[in-house]
Amino acid sequence: MLNILLFMEEKQIPYRRISGDLAASADITGVMTAGSLHTPVPGEAYAYLAAPGEGPLSGALPEQAGVIIYPPGDSSDRNSGQTTRDTCCRIQILDPSYTAQAMEAMLLQELRRLSVRQEELLRSEYIDLVSMVSRGASLHELEQFGRRLLQNPLMITDESFMLLAYTQNQEVDDPVWNEIIQTSYSPMKLVNQTDVNAFWERLENSSVPLFVDEEAFKGCRKRVVARIKIGSKTKGYIALLEIENKITSLDLYVLQMLAEVCAVKISESNTISAAVGQMKSEFTKDLLLGNMQSEAMIRNRAESMHLQFREKNAVAGVCGEDNRIYIGRYLDDLRQFFLRTADLCIYTFDGTTGYFILSFRSQKAYQSLLSDEVDHYMQTHQMLCALSHPVEGLSALARAFREARRLCGLFSHLRHISPRHLYPYEKYMLNLLLEHAYTMDDRQLYRCSSFEKLLETDLREKSSYIETLRCYFRHNQNVGETADSLYVHRNTINYRLNKIREILEEDFDDSQVRLNLQLSIMSYDMKL
């Protein structure tokens, strides 16, 4: 297959485009003239060399794409060819030395040369590539092989534009390339910027690599992209950047050959990953549900999957802030986030909540999970996280799972008392006890008579005694801090506290009275 654009550029043949998208029709496999008409072969693309005065060819070009090349100085009506399909592009040669006969000879010669060279590549380089894959070569090794053949830098991504491999042994003065390298993926702004003239749709339907339109990245290097596909599904992309040498039609063939071999490697990796992932998922479920009682059995299964658990382990349950937020697509991102702190992270997902087993070297490492950074991450991504207390021994993870799951079930109540997005078990254990008492249908157990008396007074007198007492307890019975939090004078707080004592006819400085009131306020705030 010969790329007309590259051919014109290499031979320095001046031309102008009359109509159609030359980039979409540039790849041809044959040449036709008025004197050499033949029935087009399905799947092939031809260049038709028009004779002087000849109008656009009607019905002779193949269905998919083609290009009509007019001789220089021809003034025939270019718009007369209404039967010519929109997929066909028309151009005119501007140099009179390039006659139809000369162009036909040059194009046929170049097509023959490419055919011979492609056969040579199939007999040598392609066999080496396949052999490399059979020996377990990595994508980076395949990229290095392609770099040697193409003499220009390469980049390989998966279908979500995450960077898998790239040429690392040279400096590339291209801002688009460097941004992708720095972020390890192609940001969506670059993906959208690439989509000039429906680039991604054209690539999806193309069997050959396509050049990115120059309008997409003005002033940047020329680049061509091939689709890595498994069956009919796109599984990645491989891009070639024009840095050291001009990209040729043969390079496009080599790039496509490389994409097909990369597809084999990615398919192999996907199969292995899926199998290992399934094993880990089943192991995680058995571990959390307590289906393995023996610590030795658990350790043995973990070692068979190369999972190295540490001294401290915990379970985090993560779900969306509300039912409209589906976190299934973010599970791997969450795993990467937890791995900033944890030494190991595996997870399972029940369709609503992701449960992550986290393993740490020490208690200090676990404590770092309680930071504002984790709470901020969950808030930014509209998620809620319940964290069990750390346990020792893998069989104890079933208990940690129960803690996290119970906390997740309590989110609707906890949100009433705290706007945070991270809920550690140790801090909210009392809330779980209250919720358990509530399910036992014994509300009076933790709604003491003193609290009910204050509640009635607030409702009747429009006072703020419960709010004052809540803040007073929250600030460790410090009058000054309570006043600051409520934006009132400390004398106002002292007055309210004395009134509360009068109403209750008991002193809440007494530890038992204070505990009853605190539990009652907590259950009231949880709206149990």
From TrEMBL:
Source domain of life: Bacteria
Domain PucR C-terminal helix-turn-helix residue range list: 466-521
Pfam families to which the protein is assigned, alphabetical: GGDEF_2, HTH_30
Domain CdaR GGDEF-like: 293-406
Entries under InterPro entries matching the protein: CdaR-like_regulators, CdaR_GGDEF, PucR_C-HTH_dom, PucR_C-HTH_sf
Family from the record: Belongs to the CdaR family.
Protein name: Helix-turn-helix domain-containing protein
Lineage per the UniProt record: Bacteria, Bacillati, Bacillota, Clostridia, Lachnospirales
